[in-house]
Amino acid sequence: MFFGTYTPKLDDKGRLFLPAKFRDQLADGLMVTRGQEHCLYVWPQAEIARITERLREAPVSNKAARDYIRMFSSGSSEETPDKQGRITVPPLLREWASLSKDVVVIGAMTRLEIWDEAAWTAYSAQQEESFAELSDEVFPGI
């Protein structure tokens, strides 16, 4: 499980240090994909295998499923962290998420998310107002 907020830097080659706390969980490899709200998702191998299996069950006759699978798959990059715990974020994905040098990595339970720092600041400020009110509507009893 992934929790917390971290602020590593993206270097000129598009490399990013994964938070040290999560390196062991991701050491065998991971998948970086497009995420909603123009961030990137970082999936551990076991979780991407589960998601892929679910996507494979989608009927090919469903246009929305085809569209989603195309965008998800074509914007994915399998990565293995180097000995220093860095991954390379490909140009296509850096562009998708409008990543600059300053990024924010958040734990989102089953995945990490990589955000441009300015985009995360704007998003989280917008969401803070409704966070307390949403819990009962979205997750009754929490």
From TrEMBL:
Cellular localization per UniProt: Cytoplasm, Nucleoid
UniProt superkingdom: Bacteria
Signal sequence range: none
Domain annotation SpoVT-AbrB: ranges: 5-47, 76-119
Keyword entries, A-Z: Cytoplasm, DNA-binding, Repeat, Transcription, Transcription regulation
UniProt-listed CDD domains: MraZ_C (cd16321), MraZ_N (cd16320)
InterPro entries per UniProt: MraZ, MraZ_C, MraZ_dom, MraZ_N, MraZ_sf, SpoVT-AbrB_dom, SpoVT-AbrB_sf
Primary localisation category: cytoplasm
Keyword Isomerase set for record: no
Membrane is among the record's keywords: no
PANTHER family the record matches: TRANSCRIPTIONAL REGULATOR MRAZ
HAMAP family (alphabetical): MraZ (MF_01008)
Family that this chain belongs to: Belongs to the MraZ family.
Quaternary data: Forms oligomers.
Name of this chain's protein: Transcriptional regulator MraZ
Organism: Nocardioides marmoribigeumensis
